[in-house]
Amino acid sequence: AKGAGRNTFRFFDTHMDAEVEERLRLRNGLHRALDAGTLLLHYQPVVNLATGAMEGVEALIRWRGEDGQFIPPARFIPVAEESGLIVSIGDWVLGEACRQAARWHADGHTGMKVAVNLSALQFRRGDVERSVVEALRKSGLPGHALTLELTESILISDTEQVLSVIRNLKRLGVRLAIDDFGTGYSSLSYLKRLAVDTLKIDRSFVGDLARDPDDAAIVAAVVTMAHSLGLLTVAEGVEDEETRRQLHALGCDHAQGYHFARPLPAAEITRLLSEAGL
Ligand code: C2E
Ligand code: CA
Ligand code: CA
Ligand code: CA
């Protein structure tokens, strides 16, 4: 039935402009990749700025297209959201990330945490609570080892429904992080209503931190606010030693970025864990 659907779409191709055609090509390719099991996850270390130790990883989806080249998530995630495919992809990501983290735990790396990105559509159209319960149950990973990264847009929309889902997720022991903090909506009221654990400071405030006093002021304010609210901070996009040093001086708790490590295949994270004796 799926094949027939694709052929039907193809029939309309001549009427579409290049942009729409490209999206359709991506969407069909993504469908096949999900069915064929050719999507994969890379994992980027999250480092404790006080100790330098890797405390966890963020799972980032990777898609190797039929020509063998990686297609960036920034290109296919919007297509997956538009088509609703992000719900099934998101379920796969949750399952796979928990399975991998549980394997690290089973190998003795019991402090390892894994963070998974959630799309707003998984809240609106999917049953995210059930997906998380399933992923934890199937993998045996303890809830506290899983962090869900939410964007500000999720927390602003459909508040009542989102609130109850989030309360139930918290009961599983799962941690919540606000991704790309500071780039979404100006409302901070959700910080009062939701039991968020971590703010991830967007890399647009971090990349130039060592050279731009405005950025330093913003990061300092976010860290102070977060700590007053009992939240931890993760700085994203740390690319050099001077930025690492300043973030540490500003009291930021954790960091991610090319300075420490790029997103890596699971096997390379396993190797890092063994080398570090974690
Ligand atoms: P994000 O959640 O903000 O992820 C961080 C992005 O920054 C990743 O890009 C990562 O590779 C990149 N990055 C890490 N360190 C550095 C650095 O030092 N400098 C620079 N310039 N970039 C750095 P990536 O993997 O291309 O992912 C892009 C976005 O796609 C993610 O942004 C996230 O919004 C989305 N995404 C990725 N995986 C998933 C997923 O499984 N589900 C959903 N819903 N979205 C995902
Ligand atoms: Ca993220
Ligand atoms: Ca981010
Ligand atoms: Ca500036």
The percent range for strand residues is 15-25%
Q: Helix count? A: 13
The succession of helices and strands, N to C, reads HHEEEHHEHHEHHEHEHHEHEH
Small molecules bound in the structure, each named once: ligand C2E, calcium ion
Largest sheet: 8 strands, mixed, barrel
Strand order of the largest sheet: 1-2-4-5-6-7-8-9
Average pLDDT reading:
91
Ranges with pLDDT <50 over ≥5 residues? 1-5
Radius of gyration from the CA trace? 20 Å
Fraction of residues in H or I helices: 40-55%
The shape, in one word, is globular
Q: Which structural category do the helix and sheet elements fall into?
A: alpha/beta
How far the N terminus sits from the C terminus, by CA atoms, comes to: 49 Å
In total, the number of strands is: 9
